[in-house]
Amino acid sequence: MNISPAQWHSVDSSDSVSRKRGELERFPPGQDGRFDALTDLAGALYDRYKREGEIADLDEAITLLRDALGLRPIEDDDQSFSLNNLAVCLSNRYETLGVAGDLEEAITLGREALVLCPPGHPDRCVSLHNLACDLRMRFVKQAAIHDLEEAIKLLRTALELRPCGHPHRSSSLHQLSLCLSNRHASQQVVADLEEAVSLVREALELRPLGHPDRVLSLNHLAHLLRRRFQQQASKHDLEEAIKILREALELHPSGNLYRALSFHELGLCLSHRYDDQGVLADLEEAIILGRTALELHLPGHPDHSVSLHNLACNFRRRFMKQAGISDLEVAIKLHRAALELRPSGHPRRSSSVYQLAICLSGRYDSQGEVVDLEEAITLARAALELRPPGHPDRILSLNNLAHLLRRRSQTQDSVDDLEEA
């Protein structure tokens, strides 16, 4: 996201929050200059939040910006700047805490700001870009394709206003790549994935070593290459993704807000390489990385369920290799925790239901408890219902349910189960 430069252009890493507090104290309510003092302190707090990750700084910045917005008349020419700044802070808090109300308010504020920035306004591209980012985040949460289509349209318009040499061009390239990646995941149009890769490579060229957002583009490019590997089985893509992610982790300072994403993505890449090549060291490292990502994605974090799910899958992989029942027990526990965070309607619920069924099937094979087989069948049926004809993973669920029904027919001599299988 881009902060509106008209208000926070003077805020940089050298600004002291305590100094800005002192300036605010010199402008009590009702005195001229209070608006600027509120906005500058909010900017210093936001800047410190981005560097140190203290949510209290972001909370205070939001409170200050609400106060500042109340001091500015609706018809004020610079109202869009205040709206954008508050929207950006709310979006950041949503990314950290996952409170839907923050995102909805950010979208409302973003639409208001865009109305105040008609074509030709110097900050129209900022409003276009920020609103698009928020719509994409809502798509990720709610899977409403119209949000994503609007975001793509807004970003293409913003990109036209940010030609080569524009200081924020890399940001629009990166965000448009994210949106096209999401649309590819939803609709499986290969052209979207290829364009997403091209866009993020261009963004990465504009973010050389030392650029604060280089790591974001490294993570995203690695994610796209891993996705392309899954579709096209190009080992070159997977190896490049692993190399990129190791660079990203070297660039991450300890405590960086996006460090967990690098751990998570590298763990996935190593898991895929383990599946492809069978080198146990890759799986062991993937488990270590998964544990670290989970520690950084605490309960309440939007990606907590993702970390639970992926770590569970890797423990099951190790169980399949080494037959250590403790690994399978951990996998089941983690999958159950992830499933609680993916209620009916969640876009990834079918994956958790399917994987838990696989784990319970494995425990039944190991220990022979009929209750595990029964629950596995129930879960497999539920997963199949969530994967209707046309779903890319429907065949996996069909095969799994058939396997489980065949197993039950062998145990209970059930002709009906065998016929259904």
Brief overview:
This protein has 421 residues and is mainly alpha-helical.
In words, what does this structure look like?
This protein is mostly helical and 421 residues long. It has a domain at 1-139: Tetratricopeptide repeat domain (Serine Threonine Protein Phosphatase 5, Tetratricopeptide repeat). Helix content is 76%, strand content 0%. It has helices at 5-8, 17-25, 34-52, 55-70, 79-97, 100-115, 124-142, 145-160, 169-187, 190-205, 214-232, 235-251, 259-277, 280-296, 304-322, 325-340, 349-367, 370-385, 394-412, 415-420. The chain starts with a helix and ends with a helix. The relative contact order is 0.04.
Q: What name does CATH use for the topology of the domain at 1-139?
A: Serine Threonine Protein Phosphatase 5, Tetratricopeptide repeat
The helix tally amounts to 20
Instruction: Tell me, rounded to a whole number, the average pLDDT.
Output: 91
Helix- and strand-based class?
mainly alpha
Strand content: under 5%
